[in-house]
Every structure is written in C-alpha cells, then in structure tokens.
Design brief:
The structure is a single chain. The protein has about 150 residues and is mainly alpha-helical. The chain has one domain (about 20-70, about 95-145). The chain is built from 6 helices and 2 strands, in the order αααααββα. A two-stranded antiparallel ribbon has the order 1-2. The chain starts with 17 loop residues before the first helix and ends with a helix.
Length: about 150
C-alpha cells in the first residue's frame, strides 16, 4: 500500500505536486478550448507549459494571467525571478524548474513575432526559430482571450 500524499508537507509520505497538477490541468483546458493548436503538437505543449507556469507562479486569476502573458510583459524574466525566489525543494518547484529549463532549451519554428511593424501584422511567411516559451506565451495569451 502506498503512503498518503503529503503535498510536500513532510511526514515522510509521498509528495504529490498538487499545485502544479492543478495549474497544468487548467492550462490544458484553456488551450484545448481555444483550439489554437493541435493537442499533442509541440506548440500546444509550449502553450500548456507556459500557461501552467504563469498560473502556478502568479495565482492572480485570469486577469493577472492575461497581464503576465501580454506581448509587452517581460514574461521570461518574471518566471526566472519567481523561480529563484521559490523554495528549492518540493515537488511543485521541481516540476516548475524542469518545465522552465525545457521551455528555454527547446526551439520551435514559427512566424517572426518580434518582426511586427505598425499595423501590418505578422508576416507568416517569415519563419524563425524561437524559444518554446515565446511561442507558448503568445498562444497562451490568445487562448485566455478566447476562453
């Protein structure tokens, strides 16, 4: 028989990352509902993971999530600072740090989001390699608007 969950509260039992699992569940639901990316695609995973980090680290609710994922918000610096200040142990912090590491290490080929000029919009024919978190933040922000 497995020991009871302690959710990282000590006691020698199985530590279950409930905060992370809840954040990831909400993020997955938002991305699926929006229909912006095919479930199972790298873009979908990037969106889920960036939203899960946003949800876990902010706790502000939908309005705060929208602010954090906005184009002009320094999302990557914010995540790095929040993770630096997080307790070093615990299952939620471990999963968040691992997710952040993977989002920084993975690159996806996508439209050049930084190449926005005036009201002309994005030239979807101009593809560049972007860190997965950058694609995920843009998809996550749009998904939040659609849900």
């Amino acid at each position: 028989m497995l020991p009871e969950s302690t959710n990282g509260a000590g006691g020698g039992g199985l530590a279950v990352p409930m905060d992370w699992l809840c954040a990831e569940y909400v993020a997955d639901d938002v991305m699926r509902t929006s229909g912006l990316a095919e479930p199972g695609s790298l873009e979908f995973r990037a969106g889920v993971q960036t939203l899960a980090l946003t949800i876990l680290l902010s706790g502000d609710g939908t309005d705060g999530w929208l602010r954090r994922t906005a184009h002009d918000h320094p999302w990557s610096a914010w995540v790095a600072a929040r993770l630096d200040g997080a307790p070093p142990d615990g299952p939620d912090a471990a999963l968040a740090r691992d997710t952040w590491r993977r989002l920084r290490a993975t690159e996806l080929r996508a439209a050049d989001l930084a190449g926005l000029t005036g009201l002309g919009g994005v030239d979807e024919d101009r593809q560049v390699w972007l860190p997965a978190w950058q694609v995920g933040v843009a998809l996550g922000h749009l998904a939040l608007h659609l849900c």
